[in-house]
Specification:
492 residues; alpha/beta; Leucine Aminopeptidase, subunit E, domain 1; Aminopeptidase; 8-stranded mixed sheet
């Protein structure tokens, strides 16, 4: 995809589609007025008749408009200017891109009005790249057709670069999640991470089964032992600041397929379990973005990669595992495996002297029951760090909601035969008891757990994105790291 900036008049630019943005309850922008004049008042008449209102996400198409060089004009409603934020821009532009990509339209030009305190250009470019890419990696006839060339009204090259980087990295995460477990498994994911690290200048370590055993990762290894696919741990490091600057660790759950193990899932619940490595994919995408953006911050990205399968060697209910930090774990459900993988990865993050830790995981169905498919759950041992994550998510328009971490929840994971057990008492509060389990492995480091089980993967399409992987929280974590780097620079 070629993406460039232009100041060519909207009426003269040669493209299959020209997209012109407008706000609700406002006069048309200069570009929309130019289209209106060239078409002898068509837009004005459509506005008077209520066909064009500027409501958020509204699309009005003019076919073969007279006086316009482009084959089509799409008027995109951005909603009220005083309600505009990054989330609103992202969803509106992505919806327009998805609609345009329903047919082959190789060249699209975008003329969006600017808005105070909202990076419309960078957010719009990122959104358009996401909206026009589908999940049909293996289809001969694509449902969404790639846009070969996009031109954007403006002259801010930094915003152009930022938007392209974020769009590419979100789509990387989506692609990894959308690929089946026959393509993406622990070894192939690790090799993809190695390739990206080499290209982007990241330091990389990949621990194979022997190294994981030598490192006493007994909890992670137990989950992996039922599969013929050997496990991996990926450790990426980006050093963009001084040695004495804080180091932020990002930890991702990478269960490349989750059958549930001996606590076998029903078929319907297993269909989308290629998505159980979305946390790891997000971490890899964020590390790529941070390196490309050259943020002045120190970050470690870690991913625990396993398949959870059945077999003669699969771990069993009643097994007692010893995690890397020495804690013993009674297994009462082999489908509560993600926390077992993360336990050892979190301990490595602590050992690597991370000053704070953020983990992402498609961890519990209980979080989806509590918050629905569109909202991620936040759980923490440090309110200040959690507030920073929530603020970054709000800036980017990615919904989150904090769940409580009262000490009473920890009582539910106490075991009669080991230090802890991998499930709570019954179904209730399952997202929180899973987080209390993870808290046992962070050694009082400031830590936030993001349960992305709902928003990471869509079983049906939305107006602004295809079904399948969403790349949720790539933008939020990049925003968080950018804010951390700004604070560090200001403090110094």
């Amino acid at each position: 995809m070629s993406i460039s900036l232009t100041n060519e008049p909207v009426t003269e630019i040669k493209a299959n589609v020209v997209v012109v943005g407008c706000f609700q309850d406002e006069a048309f922008s200069a570009d929309a007025q130019a289209v209106d004049a060239a078409t002898r008042g068509v837009l004005g008449r459509l506005q008077e008749s209520g066909e064009i209102t500027g409501k958020h996400g509204e699309l009005t198409t003019l076919l073969a408009p007279a006086g316009i060089a482009a084959s089509q004009v799409v008027v995109l409603g951005l909603g009220r200017r005083d309600k505009l934020d990054q989330g609103a821009v992202f969803r509106a532009v992505a919806a327009a891109a998805k609609s345009i990509a329903a047919k082959s339209r190789p060249v699209v030009a975008w003329y969006l009005p600017t808005a105070a305190n909202v990076p419309v250009l960078a957010t719009g470019i990122c959104a358009a790249m996401v909206g026009c890419q589908g999940q049909d990696l293996y289809r001969a006839e694509l449902k969404l057709n790639p846009i070969a060339e996009m031109k954007w009204r403006g002259d801010d090259t930094q915003s152009l670069e930022t938007g392209v980087i974020l769009g590419e990295c979100i789509n990387l995460a989506r692609e990894l999640v959308n690929r089946p477990s026959s393509d993406i498994y622990p070894e192939s994911f690790a090799e993809r991470a190695r390739e990206i690290a080499g290209r982007e200048g990241l330091d990389v370590e990949i621990w194979d089964k022997e190294r994981l055993s030598a490192e006493r990762c007994g909890s992670l290894l137990a989950v992996a032992q039922g599969s013929v696919r050997p496990p991996r741990m990926v450790i990426l490091r980006y050093t963009g600041s001084t040695a004495d600057a804080p180091t932020i660790a990002l930890v991702g759950k990478g269960v490349t397929f989750d059958s549930g193990g001996l606590s076998l899932k029903p078929s319907d619940s297993m269909k989308t379990m290629k998505c159980d490595m979305a946390g790891a994919a997000t971490v890899l995408a964020v590390m790529q973005a941070v390196a490309r953006l050259k943020l002045p911050v120190n970050v470690i990205g870690l991913a625990g990669l396993v398949e959870n399968m059945i077999g003669g060697n699969a771990f069993k209910l009643g097994d007692v595992l010893r995690a890397r930090n020495g804690k013993t774990i009674e297994v009462l459900n082999t489908d509560a495996e993600g926390r077992l993988v993360l336990a050892d990865v979190l301990d490595v993050a602590v050992e690597r002297k991370a000053d704070c830790i953020i983990d992402l995981a498609t961890l519990t169905g209980a979080c989806v029951v509590a918050l629905g498919n569109d909202v991620a759950g936040l759980m923490t041992n440090d309110q200040t760090l959690c507030d920073k994550v929530a603020a970054a998510a709000k800036t980017c328009g990615e919904p989150v909601w904090q769940l409580p971490m009262f000490p009473d929840y920890a009582e539910q994971i106490k075991s009669n035969v080991a230090d802890i057990k991998n499930t709570g008492d019954g179904r209730w509060g399952g997202a929180i008891t899973a987080a209390k389990f993870l808290e046992e492995f962070v050694q009082d480091k400031p830590w936030v757990h993001i349960d992305i089980a709902g928003p990471a993967f869509l079983e049906s399409a939305k107006s602004w994105i295809d079904a399948g992987a969403t790349g949720a929280f790539v933008r939020t974590l990049v925003e968080l790291l950018a804010a951390a780097s700004r604070n560090t620079t200001t403090a110094s």
